[in-house]
Each structure stands twice: as structure tokens, then as C-alpha cells.
Write a structure and sequence with these properties.
Largest interface: A-B, 36 and 35 residues
Oligomer: heterodimer
Largest sheet of chain A: 6 strands, mixed
Number of strands of chain A: 9
Number of helices of chain B: 21
Helix content of chain A: 25-40%
Radius of gyration of chain A: 18 Å
Shape of chain A: globular
Strand content of chain A: 25-35%
Distance between the termini of chain B: 32 Å
Helix content of chain B: over 70%
Shape of chain B: globular
Strand content of chain B: under 5%
């Protein structure tokens, strides 16, 4: 069963074509990675499949069309955005509580307490979100994406602003979620981490899928070839 | 550097409204002024020359008050986590002082308000001069005095907003002094000329009032400049679990988001801003009304008049509500823009009612019209609801488009002027024929409510696809 099916997806911003006929499939329980240079269209792709913006083409996320029912897609999905976007005047505890209430999580307070503890947010729980460091905000965004136990999580640069300790900790956390049956779709620039976590990769460049990379291939070389570079071009 | 600030502002406006709408705005002002010039003799015959001029120039001063309070906004730009970087925040990264960037914003906005509003009025007067018969001297005199009136409110508002976040005690002391000074003019302890020198200049052409106006603007601007701090230190704030305590069952499924909005208002200290953006203009309107005797308390039914006016002014609160938070995180949750707009309306009605009804109650008691309070409360509530649904329909969560989008302004004007004037007329007939009044107010408020429901339904469809 496929968690995400995308066929010939197009998204235009005025005269700029951000997505130019993307097709790919992510299977249930898979940890799938989208690779691509800046401006390749990764974030736009995530916005379309999570119903944050509209595109043209066939898209099904957990069997739901995000262009017809974006609320249902977002109800079933956890999303970590590229920029750590948090409410200005709420504390981390209150933000997680708000997320639980909007998503209809039962025993919201108990769940929030657990996530505050698991994501090392205890010492920040009574600070306003706007005053948190970028790394702490990023941890909060990841906690908010998983707090309702979604069957699918979409992670846009989840390791950004995290120190090496938390990069390692969250790598383990994501793998644990995959073991539990959660499907993960991740965009990242950090090929080394992606290679350790994911089994399949798609390289997006100029709004198109330029290559599909399977487990066992040299991801960095395949990525560079797909975007028109040779590994030797970049060597010192 | 000023050029860069002007370009930034231009692009910000274009982001809020369509480019064509932005360019059309001065043309609308010219057209409206031309129409006003042609009707000027009739207006003067009805209201009197002095009253008409005082209303016009006083209006400019009030406009200046509303425009100059960007100190609040500047503070927000630096304190909040906007996705955009604004030039006013340059001192955080570069060797330039905040007082310089604030002064650049001061000049930038002055240029924009002059180009978009003050000079188009002059152009409208000049273009209709062959028909209206205004002398070129009076057009020039009006332009000068309207500019000074705008600067009077603008510079004072700038100083007050700077003082607000520099030193609360100084803000309170200067605010009280200004309020007493204006009140002195309202009750006749001080001469009108002393309180409103730009008006005295227009009426007497006495050069001393020109000097007084210019000195006032320069002194207040300089004080604001000097008072602008060199660094912004935001104390780390500890906050408890307020949100769950504000979830009221009465709001059903909306209760968590309503609680979130109220939490924002409490922690964003909106109630101070309400004083600046809502109570102060109402106070100034009261002063102006008192001076020009259009709503003297001795007139029967003033409570109802104030109910209509308070309903009109309270919509300012809505723009504070929509600008309190960066709502982009809602793109990640299973909610859509109409859900947020519904929450805004509920919160607005709750807060504006809680703030305004006690004020209306006190007013009716002071005027000896307690028996009118229930009707006044009903009129205020229906009028506020009508106005807020109209604004939600027209602007969604982007209330800035109210400022410079002529399409929105014209639609808002058409949809508000007639009902508001009709409401005022109905409230004035109350003492002549109570039965007719009861029927009129019943039918009219029902029509307003029906329209409000239609606007709300329209807004849900119109803003469905909008991103947060």
C-alpha cells in the first residue's frame, strides 16, 4: 500500500514553474528522502502534498486528495516545516496543548507532559516560544509534528539548527517511529545523515525528479550526477 | 538610505494590495476632494464655515495620530519573529543607531502620507478651482494648514509611542499632560487657538500660529528622536499555563482557539495598545465633538449617538487581533482560514463588548439616560457585528489592505456610510416618536444582522483557499 502517490504534479507561481511534472510514490512504513539543491522545489512539493497550497496533477496522501480535502490530510499527517514557525505568545507547553486540542488528542495534558519530558523541553516549558533558541524551537516543532501519533510525517530539513547531539538523538527517534510503522518523508541537505536513515531517495532539481536512488548506491555521487555535477568538480 | 526605506515600503504595500490599486489611490482622493469642493458651499451653509474647517483640519490631526504610532510597530518588528527582515531592524546587525532608522521610517511614512493623501487633496482642489471658485491663496493656505495639522498629530503620536516602550512613567506623565491640555481646550479653559494652532493659522492667517505649529512639531519630533533607545532589551518572560484556564465551554469547539487569542492579547499587552489605538481616538473625537458642538451632552439621546460611534471605532481592535501573531504555523494544523476568521470574530465581539459596554454604561449614567442603556447596548452590539463581518469579508486576515487598497476602501465606505448615517438619524428621532423609533431600530438592526450573516457566509467562501 502506498502512503503517497504523486503523478505529473505541476505548481506554478505566476510565470515560474516550481514543480514541473513530478511523479513519485512513497510506500507505507518507508523512510523516504527527497534530495535537491536550494530552490529545487522540495518545499513546494511538501506544501502541495500537505494541502498548504494547490497544484495540478494527481496526488493522494493516505488515500486522500490534499487539493480536495487539505484539512483531512493535515489531520492525519505530522509536518515539520522548513522554518521553525511557532506562535509568538504561547509557551512550548501551551503550544503542544493547543496542537493536541485542535487534533482531538485525548488526555491532552498527559500527552503534553510526556512530550515535554521526551524532547528535553522541561526547562523551557514556561518561556514564550518567541524567546526560544532556534534549536529549541526546532525540537518543539518536531514534538508538535509527532504528538498525535500520525501514520505519516513530512519533515522539511528536520536537522536544521540542531546540534550534533540532537541530530543523533532525533535520527534514532525517526528510525524508532519507522519501526513502529510510521511513514516518513524527509527533505534534507545533509546527505551523510540521510544515507544512514533512508532506503530510497529521489533527487529533485528544477521542479523535476532527476533520479531515483535505491539503497546500496553511492548517494552523493548519484545526487551530484543528477544535478549536473561530477564529484571531482567539487573536490579540492 | 531613505530611498531604500521608501522602496521597502512601496514593496510592502504592493504585497498587501494590487499594484494598480496602489496607484489608483491618489486618484480616488483627488476625485473625492473634487466632489467635496463642489459641495463645499452647501456644507458650509449647513454647518458653518468655522465648524467645517475645524472638522476638516481636526480630521487631519486625528489621521496623523493614527499614522505616527509606528513606534509600537517598530518594537514589534524587532521583538517578534517575523519571517521578513525589515530595515528598521538594521541596527541589530549593522553600525547604525535605532534613532536613525526610526527617523528614516518617520520621514518615509511622512513622504507616503503626503504623496498618497495630503497632496492629492490639493490636486483635487486645484483641478476643480475653475468650478468651485476657491482662490489660489486659500488652496495654498489649506494645504499648508492641513499638512501642519497632520504633523501635529503625527509628531505627537510618534513621541508618545517612543515614550511608551522607553519609559512607562514618562509615557503616563506626558500622556496625562497632553490629555489635560486637550481637555482644557474642550471645556474652554484654554483657547482653541492655543490647543489647535494650525486651525488658528487657517482662520486668522496670523504668522505666529505658523511658528507655534512648526515649533510644536519640531520639538515633539526631536524629543521622540532623542528618546529612541540605542538598544532593545527584551526581558525574558516566564509564563504559566494560561491557555487551558481560558478555555470556556460556552465557546464549544472554538474554545481552545478563542483561549489562544485571549492569551495572545494578554501577553501581547494589547490592552495598552487599545488605550492608544481605541480609547485615545475616542477621547480626541470627544474633545473635537465638544469643541465643535456636534454631540454636546445636553442633546437628548447622546447615549445612542455614542453607541453608534463606539461601534464604529471599536473595529480598530480587529486590526490588532489580526496582527498579534504570525499565524503561519496554522498551515501545519487541520484548520483553514475561515476557522481563524470565525475565531477572530468571536474574540473581537467578546473583547469589544467587555471593553465598551462598561464605557457605554458610564456614559449613559453621566448623561442621565440610563433607561437608554439597553437599547444603546443592542445598537452597539449589532453595529459592531455588522462592521466586523464586513471587514472580515473584505480583508480576511490582511487588514492592512484597509489602509491603501482603494477597492476595499470604496466598498467599505459604501457599505458603512449609509447604514451608519441611517442609524444616527434613527437614534435622533427617538425622543420625538418612541413607537416609530422602536419599529425603526428593530427593523434596521434586523437588516444589519441579516447582512452580517451574508457577509460572514461570503467570507467563508472567499478566504477558503487563503494560506495563513
Amino acid at each position: 500500500m502506498s502512503a503517497i502517490v504523486v503523478k505529473n504534479l505541476v505548481k506554478e507561481y505566476g510565470s515560474v514553474r516550481a514543480l514541473n511534472g513530478i511523479s513519485l510514490t512513497v510506500e507505507e512504513g518507508e523512510f523516504f528522502c527527497l534530495l535537491g539543491p536550494n530552490g529545487a522545489g522540495k518545499t513546494t512539493f511538501i506544501k502541495v502534498i500537505t494541502g498548504q497550497t494547490r497544484g495540478r496533477g494527481h496526488v493522494r496522501v493516505l488515500g486522500v486528495d490534499p487539493m480536495r480535502d487539505p484539512v483531512e490530510v493535515r489531520r492525519r499527517t505530522g509536518i515539520v516545516p522548513e522554518t521553525e514557525s511557532v506562535p509568538t505568545y504561547l509557551t512550548p507547553w501551551e503550544y503542544l496543548y493547543l496542537v493536541c486540542r485542535i487534533r482531538g488528542v485525548e488526555d491532552a495534558e498527559d500527552r503534553v507532559e510526556r512530550y515535554i519530558r521526551e524532547f528535553d523541553l522541561r526547562e523551557y516549558e514556561d518561556r514564550l516560544c518567541k524567546e526560544l533558541s532556534k534549536g529549541t524551537r526546532q525540537r518543539l516543532m518536531i514534538a508538535a509534528a509527532f504528538i498525535h501519533d500520525p501514520p505519516l510525517a513530512v519533515l522539511d530539513e528536520p536537522f536544521i539548527n540542531l546540534d550534533p547531539l540532537y541530530q543523533r538523538k532525533f535520527s534514532r527517534y525517526f528510525l524508532k517511529k519507522v519501526d513502529e510503522g510510521t511513514t516518513l518523508l524527509m527533505c534534507t541537505h545533509i546527505i551523510e545523515i540521510a544515507q544512514k536513515l533512508c532506503r530510497r531517495f529521489a533527487v529533485i532539481y528544477r521542479g523535476q525528479v532527476r533520479a531515483m536512488i535505491e539503497d546500496g548506491e553511492d548517494v552523493e555521487s548519484a545526487f551530484l550526477r543528477a544535478v549536473g555535477y561530477d564529484a571531482e568538480d567539487l573536490s579540492d | 538610505m531613505l530611498r531604500t526605506f521608501l522602496i521597502e515600503e512601496y514593496r510592502r504595500h504592493i504585497a498587501y494590495v494590487k499594484r494598480l490599486s496602489f496607484y489608483l489611490f491618489p486618484l480616488y482622493v483627488i476625485a473625492f476632494t473634487g466632489l467635496f469642493a463642489l459641495l463645499f458651499d452647501d456644507i458650509v451653509a449647513e454647518s458653518g464655515y468655522a465648524t467645517t474647517m475645524l472638522t476638516l483640519l481636526g480630521g487631519y490631526a486625528l489621521y496623523g495620530v493614527g499614522s505616527g504610532a509606528f513606534g509600537f510597530l517598530g518594537q514589534q518588528y524587532m521583538q517578534r519573529n517575523f519571517r521578513e527582515f525589515y530595515l528598521i531592524s538594521l541596527p541589530a546587525l549593522h553600525p547604525i543607531r535605532y534613532r536613525h532608522t526610526f527617523m528614516l521610517v518617520y520621514i518615509r511614512d511622512l513622504v507616503y502620507y503626503s504623496v498618497l493623501m495630503i497632496f492629492p487633496v490639493t490636486a483635487g482642489l486645484a483641478l476643480t478651482q475653475p468650478v468651485s471658485g476657491f482662490s489660489w491663496y486659500s488652496i495654498a493656505r489649506f494645504t499648508l494648514c492641513s499638512f501642519l495639522a497632520f504633523m501635529y498629530g503625527y509628531s505627537l503620536s510618534f513621541l508618545m509611542s517612543i515614550l511608551f516602550f522607553r519609559n512607562r512613567a514618562a509615557f503616563a506623565a506626558v500622556g496625562l499632560a497632553v490629555a489635560l491640555y486637550l481637555a482644557g481646550g474642550a471645556v474652554g479653559v484654554l483657547s482653541r487657538a492655543l490647543v489647535l494652532p494650525f486651525y488658528a493659522l487657517y482662520m486668522t492667517s496670523d504668522f505666529r500660529w505658523f511658528i507655534a505649529s512648526v515649533v510644536f512639531c519640531i520639538v515633539t519630533t526631536l524629543l521622540g528622536y532623542i528618546a529612541t533607545p540605542d538598544e532593545f532589551i527584551f526581558r525574558e518572560r516566564r509564563a504559566g499555563k494560561l491557555l487551558p484556564r481560558l478555555e470556556f465551554r460556552a465557546f464549544g469547539e472554538s474554545r481552545t482557539l478563542v483561549a489562544k487569542e485571549i492569551t495572545d492579547m494578554v501577553r501581547g499587552r494589547v490592552f495598552y495598545k487599545v488605550i492608544a489605538a481605541y480609547v485615545v481616538p475616542v477621547f480626541l473625537l470627544g474633545v473635537l465633538s465638544r469643541i465643535i458642538d456636534i454631540a454636546a451632552p445636553e442633546v437628548y439621546g447622546s447615549t445612542l449617538f455614542y453607541a453608534v460611534m463606539l461601534g464604529f471605532f471599536s473595529v480598530v481592535l480587529y486590526s490588532w487581533l489580526t496582527n498579534l501573531d504570525d499565524y503561519s504555523y496554522m498551515n501545519l494544523l487541520p484548520v483553514r482560514m475561515p476557522d481563524l476568521l470565525r475565531i477572530h470574530i468571536i474574540t473581537y465581539m467578546l473583547v469589544s463588548t467587555v471593553l465598551t459596554l462598561p464605557l457605554l454604561f458610564l456614559l449613559s449614567a453621566a448623561l442621565g439616560e440610563m433607561y437608554l442603556f439597553p437599547v444603546a447596548a443592542w445598537i452597539f452590539t449589532v453595529n459592531s457585528f455588522y462592521l466586523i463581518t464586513l471587514i472580515v469579508y473584505l480583508t480576511g486576515n490582511r487588514t492592512y489592505s484597509m489602509l491603501f487598497d482603494p477597492e476595499v476602501i470604496v466598498k467599505f465606505g459604501v457599505a458603512t456610510i449609509l447604514p451608519e448615517v441611517a442609524l444616527l438619524i434613527i437614534t435622533m428621532v427617538g425622543y420625538r416618536d418612541p413607537l416609530l423609533f422602536a419599529w425603526s431600530i428593530g427593523i434596521f438592526t434586523s437588516v444589519l444582522l441579516l447582512n452580517a450573516v451574508l457577509y460572514y457566509s461570503g467570507a467563508k467562501k472567499r478566504w477558503l483557499e487563503e494560506e495563513f
